[in-house]
Amino acid sequence: MSSGIEFPKELETQFEKLKMGKAHRYLSIIISSKSVEGSNKTTEVFEVEKMPAKNCPNEDPEGCLQELMELLQDNQCRFVVFLMSAPNIAGILKENIFFVQYVPDCASIKKKMLYTASADVLKQRFEGVTIIQLNDLSDCKSELFLSKIRM
ADF-H domain: which residues (predicted)? Predict the structure, then answer.
């Protein structure tokens, strides 16, 4: 299902930087409305809300997840694409890029539908990510993420 939401080139560029491990550890993405030039209409667009520098102090998996939990505290729908490193079963450090679709149960029906329909657009554009769906902060457990890395 196509949501008709604009996918800006900047978002693709920032994802590539994250993927290459160059600039950011995560991207927080929201859907916002912007005015269409020359008319009274608005269109919805994916917007990068936050993109902290890669050299953030929380490089360990638990610190990464704690930062993710803090980001989701406001119970607003959003997508988060983030890089997480942890040892796999063989003990070798492995990086994984997660695509977290956070649609809390307390969100309005309209927001839930918008973010659910729009997720496919991002999933198709962000190749090579591990998809995680969260509906409540209690779902955000380190073992959920670490088990995907250890596979």
Answer: 2-150
Contact 75, 112 (CB under 8 A): no
Mean pLDDT of 6-23: 86
pLDDT over 70, % of the chain: 90
**In what helix (H) or strand (E) does residue 66 lie, and over which residues does it extend?**
helix 61-72
- Contact partners, residue 142, CB within 8 Å, separation at least 6: 61, 62, 65
For 21-39, what is the mean pLDDT? 83
Asked if residues 61 and 129 have their Cβ atoms less than 8 Å apart, the reply is no
Q: Decide: 28 and 51 in contact? Cβ < 8 Å.
A: yes
Neighbour count for residue 140 (Cβ, 10 Å): 17
User: In this structure, which topology does domain 9-150 adopt according to CATH?
Assistant: Severin (3.40.20)
Query: In sequence order, what E strands does the chain have?
Result: 26-35, 42-50, 78-87, 93-102, 130-134
CB 98 within 8 A of CB 61: no
Report pTM: 0.84
Note the maximum CA span of the chain.
58
Strands 93-102 and 78-87, sheet pairing? antiparallel
**Residue with tokens 């490193």, as numbered in its chain:** 85
Q: Where are the domains of the chain?
A: 9-150
